[in-house]
Amino acid sequence: MPDKKRKISSELRSHRWFGPESLRAFGHRSRTLQMGFSRQDYEGKPVIAILNTWSDLSHCHSHLRERAQDVKRGIWQAGGFPVEIPVMSLAEVYQKPSTMMYRNLLSMEVEEILRSYPVDGCVLMGGCDKTPPALLMGALSMGLPSIFVPAGPMLRGNWQGKTLGSGSDVWKYWDELRAGNITEQDWHDIEEGIARSAGTCMTMGTASTMSGILEALGFTLPNASTIPAPDSNHPRMASDSGRRVVEMVWEDLTPTDVLTWASIENAVRVLMALGGSTNALIHLIAIAKRAGFNLPLELFEEIGKTTPYLVNMRPSGKYLMEDFHYAGGLAALLQVMRPLLHINTMTCTGKSLGENIKRFKVFNSDVIKPLESPLLTEGGLVILRGNLAPNGAVIKTSAATPSLLKHEGNAIVFDDYNDMERRIDDPALNVEPSSILVLRNSGPQGGPGMPEWGMLPIPKKLLKQGVRDMVRISDARMSGTSYGTCVLHVSPESWIGGPLALIKTGDTIELDIEKREINVLVSESELKTRKRSWRPQIRKFPRGYGQLFSRHVQQAHEGCDFDFLSGNAEIDEPEIH
Ligand code: FES
């Protein structure tokens, strides 16, 4: 535990609202009584905000309204005063143009709600892709004791006795439908079988990756991130988290006690061992920045070289989150990785990571591989540079086709998503299996919000020839559930004049994973000539949040946070008058 004095009631932050004999405190107390609470419900107790991302449109969080009651039970039992506060839902499938456009907005909401209300600590409830990083970024910036309750993965999908994985099997069977290999009825039946319960995508997509990362960072109870949402262990974990956060307030155990450079390195290692989502790079960079750390892409590269890929899950491998949990879960993976981790990092339990995981073990070594026989000796994510991506790009090699990892081909350029959609299945498109599909204007500003368009569809005429993967390049992201030889997050993006804006159909592009390079084989002078005739795009948003977003969002290699949110400069507590 950090060397801090245990708090007493009069030192609680909420005491400034409720404690004094003043006109303002009178108002705060009388309004609490107005809501039906007695003095003994709240007086002298830590006020715990349960920040709940439930909504009727939040498909992965449909159980969180009920789960908040379990959290409350724990908080009451531990002597706290629970207050549930709804915060923005980022529902991955529904929200357009992209939930990523709203990650920073949720983080701002979290920070400002915690700052402006009488709150001593918080429980962060969520799981769908952008929600865990957004909640943590806001909590880090405010700095109150915080614990994360992951929404948990949904149950395995099922179709005709076959196991279906979120996202991954959608892309797979969509191609089979377009190739004429399954029927419309099959496709309809898959729709009914792929999402069978509450919870997040049960592949190693962004939700599973980010929840695992928040556990590795130390913000959940041990093994919380892999418990399936419908499992009765899930509400028990929720009430345990409620009990624990009250203690965290008395101990003054804050997010910056938990998030250190060592815990960030652990998180990067866990990302590599999971074969996790490429989105995690962007989120981890942004999270680190909120705590004042600069996390360069090179560190992912460096740590990736010494971290084996261990968790055999789709889209890179075979299994799903239920299998991972029954095989021992995230804590068992951490136990396997023990020699590679900083095990003395502090966690929300008040104990070190090493103490938290010591009772966990692996029950199925085909799901969680031993260090000595990994799925790959290096992590599944590789950082690329070259004249196409001076500030970096990423590829998930664990989900790519090995024979395409060194490849030269002619570019077919799509100016934006609409252009791609119009032409991709055109029989006249001059495309071959060796072609390289390029999509531009899909980055942080161009998308806007870097939509998950990076797994460009394979042209129908090639699907019918049996082609299932091609090299694809974009400044977009791709879903963590996606797969294929997709170069993503090209930075700087084409919208602001990055090299992707200068490529023409027919240019030769070379991808060389071993050399970590992505280059267009066009002379520097020709690229300069093309740059001179490039014209900046007109901003898409004349006003409103979109205007704020496009003015302040940073590039992919910088974490896509707003420039004014990064950093850890202290902000004064609000005056109470
Ligand atoms: Fe919510 Fe995948 S859509 S986690």
Residue fraction in strands: 5-15%
Spell out which ligands are present: FE2/S2 (inorganic) cluster
Please provide the count of β strands.
14
Give the total of domains: 3
Topology diagram in text:
Blueprint: H1 15-18, H2 23-34, H3 39-42, E1 47-52, H4 64-77, E2 81-86, H5 100-116, E3 121-126, H6 131-142, E4 146-150, E5 157-159, E6 162-164, H7 168-178, H8 184-193, H9 206-217, H10 233-251, H11 255-258, H12 261-274, H13 279-290, H14 297-305, H15 321-326, H16 329-336, H17 353-357, E7 381-386, E8 389-396, E9 406-414, H18 417-423, E10 436-439, H19 460-463, E11 471-474, E12 486-488, E13 508-512, E14 517-520, H20 524-533, H21 544-552
Parallel strand pairs: 1-2, 1-3, 3-4, 9-10, 10-11, 11-12
Antiparallel strand pairs: 5-6, 7-8, 8-12, 9-13, 13-14
Helix pairs in contact: 4-10, 5-6, 6-9, 6-13, 9-12, 12-13, 12-14
The chain binds FE2/S2 (inorganic) cluster.
